[in-house]
User: Which sequence fits this backbone?
């Protein structure tokens, strides 16, 4: 049995959108305390690690530890039909293998149903990476640097040195450079055990930053040279973390 109630749909919808940019189909692990998703994109270039406590919702009921496998992009389409002032109740009907979305406002109610998928057999391992550098910055600054890079290239390089964070891109149309010194207003913290840098596919980084930036004001980047980057977006409740593999030889 699993059921949640949501009175403010926008924050929840934004979180689901942040998942959908990486994962099309995913299996949520549910228990009495939280909702959890650890999943990779189809190409195994990016991963999302997501947790949302039951306290996020206005009502939360879960018996046992059911697994909920759905098409997240399709789920988002239904959530996009919910108006801001509607009360929402989402129920897992295990007998019919359906996820039911109830919307109500005054005396008017609507209901959507979508199929539940078979749980994915693939077990996604938790990444074990020893990071050599860590930068905490505003998501606004991160998004601006990525948009700058998008003008000139399909790839972007992220580097952390002793006293500076750099995001740059170079291509046939020119180059872009963003640098934050340690005392920058947008660079909130910088810890460097070893200078580190890696190059990433810009489209992935752009999708992640734009979607996660709508729910988070602060991002934490962790790097080691030519290793996946860990991007944790601070949210009021729960955990939203992405891992993105580097482009080698670009």
Assistant:
């Amino acid at each position: 049995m699993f059921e949640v109630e949501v009175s403010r749909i926008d924050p929840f919808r934004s979180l689901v959108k942040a998942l959908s940019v990486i994962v099309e189909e995913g299996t949520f692990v549910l228990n009495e305390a939280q909702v959890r998703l650890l999943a990779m994109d189809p190409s195994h270039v990016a991963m999302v690690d997501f947790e949302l406590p039951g306290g996020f919702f206005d009502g939360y009921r879960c018996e046992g530890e059911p697994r909920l496998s759905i098409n997240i992009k399709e789920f988002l389409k239904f959530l996009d039909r919910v108006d801001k002032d509607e009360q929402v109740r989402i129920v897992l009907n295990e007998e019919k293998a359906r996820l039911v979305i109830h919307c109500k406002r005054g005396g008017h109610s609507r209901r959507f149903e979508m199929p539940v998928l078979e749980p994915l057999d693939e077990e996604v391992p938790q990444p074990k990476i020893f990071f050599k550098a860590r930068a905490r910055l505003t998501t606004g600054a991160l998004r601006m640097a990525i948009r700058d890079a998008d003008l000139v290239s399909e790839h972007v390089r992220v580097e952390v040195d002793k006293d500076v964070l750099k995001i740059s891109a170079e291509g046939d149309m020119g180059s872009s450079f963003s640098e934050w010194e340690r005392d920058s207003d947008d660079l909130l913290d910088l810890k460097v055990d070893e200078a580190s840098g890696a190059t990433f596919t810009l489209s992935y980084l752009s999708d992640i930053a734009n979607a996660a930036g709508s729910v988070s004001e602060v991002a934490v980047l962790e790097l080691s040279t030519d290793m996946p980057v860990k991007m944790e977006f601070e949210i009021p409740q729960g955990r939203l973390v992405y891992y993105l593999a580097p482009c080698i030889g670009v």
